[in-house]
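Lab notebook: predicted structure, single chain.

Context: the supervisor wants predicted structures on file for every construct in the current expression panel, including those that have not yet been purified. This is the next one on the list. No modifications to the sequence; it matches the entry in the shared construct table.
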Amino acid sequence: MKICALTMVYKDYWALSQWYRHHGRQVGVENLFVVAHGADPRIGEICPGASVITVPRDGFDHFDRRRGAALNAFQAGLLQSYDWVIRTDADELICHDPHRYESLADAIAAHAGAPVLTALGFDLVEQPGDPQTDEGSVFTARRHAAFSGHYSKAFAICRPLDLMLHGVRVSPRRLQGFPFAMPPGVYLAHLKYANISALYDANLIREQVGRSGDAGAPGSGWSAATADASAFLARFADKRELPWPQAEARAYDRLSVNPARLEKSGIVKTRALKFDFRTRLCDRFLTL
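Prediction complete. Output recorded below exactly as produced.
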């Protein structure tokens, strides 16, 4: 079974280095594809051996729609050469439980009857006293996390389907019966809050895009990115902490069933549920 991983990035060098390191170990660096939004020689320096494709950065009108359309077309092309395409943002890592699966490829193979796979998502969050994360796996330096319905995203396809709004778009006649598969022991680690210094650098770029005034620009999560991040960190600090097994079980039991099926947009996705608890990663993540 041939698997590749695809992302798109503009700067965000710390997150990209984590994405490259992690997914390169899982599928091989020669099977990594990075779409650079604007020419940037540092992308190739961070990702040696990966395929780097540059697209113009010449305006932000309908930013998300244009970006999504380009990536959907590209992943469809990759399926001519690969059995599965993993697609995430540059600050998202797809992880597997090594007690359940020998590798990420093994996890995908175990659920290959589904056309799309969705991962149980969590935000990984830097806390006071945490060490620096400039080198090595982020999982050795960050352990505080909170499960998230919003970041429990569709991440891998074996058919030319469009990923959109954290889910998959299907035809109206297939919407109600389309299979929803969230394999146990497969996770999406969202790194947006795992490096506060990198977060505020990235937020300056998000705010530039969100405040561009171009038609279809992203909403307040980008135009007010710094305030949005501060509000998230305050909410995280107020959550009660549960042990990983209890927190994972609660989140999986709620998110792995009854997906949202949005008739207007034709999207099947995880419900965007929020939880009032946080947790700490179990030691199994140290081996990834």
